[in-house]
Here is the input.
Amino acid sequence: MTPRWTRRTLCALAAAVTFGTIAGGIPPAAAVPPPAAPPPPAVTTPVTDHCPHKISTPPAVDESEVVAPGSTTPTPLPVPTPAVGGEDLAYCGVVADPAAGPVPPGLTSAGWLIADLGSGQIIAAKDPHGRYRPASTIKVLLALVVLDELDLAASVVPTPDDWGAEGDSCGMGPGGNYTVRDLLTGLLLVSGNDCANALARELGGVDATLTKMNARAVALGAADTRAASPSGLDAAGMSSSPYDLALVFRAAMAEPVFRELIATPTFRFPGYPRRPDVPGDKDHPAYDMYTSNRLLLDGYPGALGGKTGYTDDARKTFVGAVERNGRSLVIVQMFGLSVDGDLYWDQAKALFDYGFRADPAISVGRLVDSGPGSAESRSSGSRSSGSSAVRPPASTGPQRAAPHSDTASPASVRVLIGLVAALLVVALLLLGLRFSRRR
Here is the structure.
């Protein structure tokens, strides 16, 4: 039988380890403090090397994409072979030239891309052709169609469907006096879904607008893109990719009006009179709206503009451009999150900084200047600077991890060590209790 002092020693040791570790050695007489706030979640980059989104977007988290009874779910878009923009872009992990240095850590986006806005050369990317939901970044494609077809000075009469639109709103109302330019500005600055609805009506209705948006995507070579709602609200079949959003944004930045509006930090949006159908309502005066692009609003050096997006299914998305020392870059972030200590805007800045540090000659692919059937698209493989880029061969199947593959973050390793330590403490405690029962 184990001596009594040994049993007591083991029990005391288990108690000391347990309470000393968790409570930091609090004296017996001290009051027990409230439990500490949980640590922020570990920053992890989704691993996409095995091409989970090569054909379809990630699974929906709600019922926003359930089709109406009697309707059919859209089939996935075909996957072009070879990949648009260069064979290296068929890879689903990180595609980067080692000469540019390590890619920024702590990126939460499943897919991202950095490219030269002028030349179209892609500096680096992760899952560039992965299919993700664009959320409100698809409004850039809507803006291109509006600029093609509508008179910016034309008046638009709002309807209940406009001011009742789901999601972000510019604040349209009955009796308001709006121009197409007003609505296009609100669409780009505050992502107004009421403005998107009104502009779609001016283009012939939602179905006609989607047909025009998707035709423009095809003309640009955006083979991963299908607009299923003009505003970017989740709908069955909605799809885009980091490559495509960069392609669309680059085309939009070639339009002087778009370039002017996307660089506008604030705009006075028209108001509307009191509504007689709303008891106690008062006049709604014009107000100053502010862009949702924090890089522009906060004065990030060289910010040219950008478009944000978010839905529960799409998570955070962003496409934007910055100019520095005469060179302009565009970045895309898709299916990402802000976490404590690692905001999405900080991740965007890290991508821009990485791109500007890279030699302008570095390239892992190219944003095509025309549709997928063009000679350029077929021959636009990666035009590298000659540096020893480490990239796995293109494949339509699962990819093995490469030197630039996503890896576990240090935070996740620390969590694993903590779990092992906790299990050890519990085991010691149970051992002590077992000995105490043998009295």
Summary: Residues 1-29, 377-417 have pLDDT under 50 and may be disordered. Residues 410-436 form the longest helix (27 residues). The longest strand covers residues 315-324.
